[in-house]
Amino acid sequence: MLLAKVRGTVVSTCKEPSLNGVKFLLVQLLNDMGELLPDYEVAADVVGAGVGEWVLITRGSGARQHEGYVDRPVDTAVVAIVDTVSLDSGALYNKREDWS
Amino acid sequence: MLLAKVRGTVVSTCKEPSLNGVKFLLVQLLNDMGELLPDYEVAADVVGAGVGEWVLITRGSGARQHEGYVDRPVDTAVVAIVDTVSLDSGALYNKREDWS
Amino acid sequence: MLLAKVRGTVVSTCKEPSLNGVKFLLVQLLNDMGELLPDYEVAADVVGAGVGEWVLITRGSGARQHEGYVDRPVDTAVVAIVDTVSLDSGALYNKREDWS
Amino acid sequence: MLLAKVRGTVVSTCKEPSLNGVKFLLVQLLNDMGELLPDYEVAADVVGAGVGEWVLITRGSGARQHEGYVDRPVDTAVVAIVDTVSLDSGALYNKREDWS
Amino acid sequence: MLLAKVRGTVVSTCKEPSLNGVKFLLVQLLNDMGELLPDYEVAADVVGAGVGEWVLITRGSGARQHEGYVDRPVDTAVVAIVDTVSLDSGALYNKREDWS
Questions:
Q1: Residue D36's closest CA among D63, D10, D8, D61?
Q2: Can you say whether residue A12 is alpha, beta or left, with left for phi > 0 and alpha for psi between -120 and 50 degrees?
Q3: Nearest residue to E81 (alpha-carbon basis) of E44, E50, E59, E60
Q4: Chain B nearest-CA residue for C49
Q5: Are D52 and D73 in contact, with CB atoms under 8 Å apart?
């Protein structure tokens, strides 16, 4: 999985039928310093994440291991909202103290 | 999934038999500013996208999660035509206002 | 899928048993200008492609969606010989006019 | 698989239900000289690895080949704690002599 | 598949149970000139390759298409020992003449 920050949403009317009801979030990847990378993904949201939150994304067939998703053409999903990231002996991120 | 722009088509007569009837679009990836990246994919079109449109592409086994595609040797599919992309508090793309 | 050009062949006597009879082509990836990239793949040939031809390659589990390949340890296959590539309003490649 | 070093942990309360009980380790990839690369992964731990240890990570559907993981949305797992890495005629890493 | 050269071995005592008996080779990727790239993989050996040999590696779910491997958490396997690589009209590599 990778750390990412929710940046926005993507809306589509004309899509593969099984994608109806799937919410697409635009998430931008974070490096191990918590800084935004140029890489992004459009991910199916299965946890109700909001803009600005740090999340974990799963890519590939793992993104379809969620009830009702096994036959949907998605390759990336937001599977967790991050509370804390600890790195070595310190804290890289704590949602309660996030002011960015 | 990734954002991409439809740039053209690829035609092949001699191909794996199950690919008959599959339309191949050449799509170029977009960065999070909506600019064309050097990377492209040749994707199976399952939504009827046209040249110039912004689309979502799914890669890997997810590209075969469409009726009749499960046994076809494809690894990328155009699964949605994008209407709008919202980033932070603004709009990155709106199909109705697209003049590019 | 990606566009590639057939550059050569790879021969192996000592291999996983189910690979007997599989022809391995060395294919070099092409960018969206039709120029050779430094990246290559060794691909199972299921369409009878020859050196110098432009082909489409499928990677991942999609490369095994061909009769008799589902249990073979391959991750890339040549699945189509390209006739034409159209980009925007022009032609990037036409097999009949190929002189490279 | 790739060599990586365990750097920390990621904690999430709000996550896809099947991820309950999965421990997420932040692991940083190592190059073939044993140096830390900028790339990292958040991996499900199935072997009880600790911060500072060298591990092997498996990505993609292989990360779910562990009892109870087949339906969980994970794409990376720590599958082994490394004892030694031998390169050509020398030793690149020996856990007993690790002082880093 | 990709061309790689066997550089060494990785040993682990504490690992996912189904990995018992799997031999891990450290293989370094080769470019299309036969030169070592900085990228490497730790691959399950299913053909008995030795240090210094050129091999083909398969990645992803294809690496588990070998008897007894389908449920093991591996994502890369050495599936063939290379005899010859022919590029355009010449030979890039011939195992019998290899003196590197």
A1: D8
A2: beta
A3: E50
A4: B14
A5: no
Strand runs (DSSP E) across E1-100, as ranges? 2-11, 24-30, 36-45, 54-59, 76-81, 84-87, 90-94
Q: Which of C1, D42, D63, D73 is nearest to A70 (CA)?
A: D73
Which of A71, A30, C80, E16 minimizes the C-alpha distance to D81? Answer: E16
| First-to-last C-alpha distance (Å) of chain D | 22
Residue C23 · residue C45 · CB < 8 Å = yes
Residues E59 and D1: beta-carbon distance below 8 Å: no
Contact D86, D92 (CB under 8 A): yes
How many separate helices (H) and strands (E) can be counted in chain A?
0, 7
Mutate to test the interface with C, among B13, B16, B20 (most CBs of C within 10 A): B16
Q: How large is the average pLDDT for residues B50-55?
A: 97
The predicted model gives B40-69 an average pLDDT of 97
Reading the block at residue B78, the tokens are 């155009």
A98 pLDDT higher than 80 = no
**Tokens 């355009």 correspond to what residue?**
E88
Nearest chain C residue to B72, by CA: C65
pLDDT score, position C40: 97
Calpha distance E33→E47 (Å, rounded): 24
Nearest to residue D59, comparing CAs of A1, A95, B90? A1
In terms of Cα–Cα distance, which of C15, E95, D73, E49 is closest to A59?
D73
Residue C17 token pair = 């048993």
pLDDT tens across B71-99, in order?
999 999 999 999 999 998 789 999 988 75
Neighbours of chain E (3+ CB pairs under 8 A): C, D
Quote the CA–CA distance of D36 and D30 in Å, as a whole number: 5
Cβ separation of A42 and B56 shorter than 8 Å?
yes
Q: Could you tell me how many CB contacts below 8 A there are between chain D and chain E?
A: 99
Widest CA span of chain C, in angstroms? 49
CA distance D53 to A86: 16
**CATH no. for E2-97:** 2.40.50.220
Share of residues in chain A with pLDDT > 70 (%) = 98
A60 and A37 in contact (C-beta within 8 Å)?
Answer: no
**Quick one: DSSP state of residue A35?**
P
Query: Minimal Cα–Cα distance from A24 to chain D, Å?
Result: 16
C 41-60 residues with CB < 8 A to B:
46-48, 56, 58-60
Q: pTM of this prediction?
A: 0.95
Choose among E63, A32, C39: nearest CA to D60.
E63
